[in-house]
Amino acid sequence: MGRISVIKGLENSNQAHNNTARHIEEIFGNHKSDLNEIIDLSQKVKKGIQVIDPFLQQNTSIVCPGCNKVCCIDQHSYYSCEDLIYIYSLGLEVQECESIDVTAPCRFLSSEGCRLERAVRPSGCNWYFCDSLYDSMEKSPGSAYYDFNDSLQELTDLWMELVNEFCCKFKKLTGNEMRIEDLMSSSKRRIT
């Protein structure tokens, strides 16, 4: 496949994804009262993320400053459609971004770490744990790692319930099918 074909394929994919993102935004804008269960699930996800944040902060503050490879790169600072369901259900706004420098450090990365509250970071950022971070977490005293792992599993279950519930509501409200596969691509949208 030639370079032009690859670029055209990416443009078509981004356009399809942006259309899906606009539909998600419109659904929340026009049918908020029909989406109370999804909003409640998102609030639970947010609280769950806030519960595990101190454990993650403690470990990233140990591991990340001494790391030679920056994991937090701009390529991962965009929201997936799943993230957008979560973000829009919380009533937050996002904006489109045009440029991606896939190798540059994330725009939200500062000398003190991420400037975004963990509860509104893209899921690709929140759920990426390098080997060094895993090692640090597993060495945590007492049951801290096991408690974190249990909480993370609960969050995963809530996240999947949130996405599945949205797909069902989307079909009821629009008559169109939204497949999980449609939600897996990344978005060129950022929180504002």
Provide a descriptive summary of the structure in words:
56% of the residues lie in helices and 5% in strands. The protein has 192 residues and is mainly alpha-helical. The strands form 2 sheets. The chain has a two-stranded antiparallel ribbon with strand order 1-4. β2 (109-110) and β3 (113-114) form a beta hairpin. It is globular, with a radius of gyration of 18 Å. The model is unreliable at 1-12 (pLDDT under 50).
List keywords for this structure.
globular; 4 strands; two-stranded antiparallel ribbon; mainly alpha; 56% helix; 192 residues
**Number of E-type strands:** 4
Question: Based on the structure, what is the oligomeric state of the protein chains?
Answer: single chain
SSE pattern: HHHEEEHHHE
Shape: globular
Task: Compile the SSE list and pairings.
Layout lengths: L2 H28 L5 H28 L17 H9 L4 E3 L12 E2 L2 E2 L8 H4 L4 H8 L5 H31 L14 E3 L1
In a few lines, what is going on in this structure?
The radius of gyration is 18 Å and the shape is globular.
